[in-house]
Amino acid sequence: MDIYTLLREFADSWMLLFLFVFFLAVVLWAFRPGSSKVYKDTANIPFRHEDKPAPEMGKAKEARS
């Protein structure tokens, strides 16, 4: 059996199944019930400081201290 034929058969069967299962796992992980709060918080990052720009990283640490 030729190596190309062997790899082609593997890709057509088991690798296709593996990639489909991996895709389903990623989709289920992204839409899990606990993730909506994290995604909403991340989506609202640009709107957190509407009245003034966000402080720079060094200045933000000094202001907290």
Would you write up a description of this structure?
The protein is mainly α and 65 residues long. It is built from three helices and no strands. The protein has helices at 3-30, 35-43, 57-64. The radius of gyration is 24 Å and the shape is elongated. The chain starts with a helix and ends with a helix. The model has no long low-confidence stretch (mean pLDDT 82). Keywords: Membrane, Transmembrane, Transmembrane helix. The chain crosses the membrane at residues 14-31. This is Cytochrome c oxidase subunit 4. It comes from Phaeobacter inhibens.
Report Rg: 24 Å
The count of strands amounts to 0
Q: In percent, how helical is the residue content?
A: 55-70%
Note the main sheet. none
InterPro entries: Cbb3-typ_cyt_oxidase_comp
Pfam family, one: FixQ
Keywords: Membrane, Transmembrane, Transmembrane helix
Protein name: Cytochrome c oxidase subunit 4
In a nutshell, what does this entry contain?
By secondary structure, the chain is mostly helical. The chain has three helices and no strands. Pfam families: FixQ (PF05545).
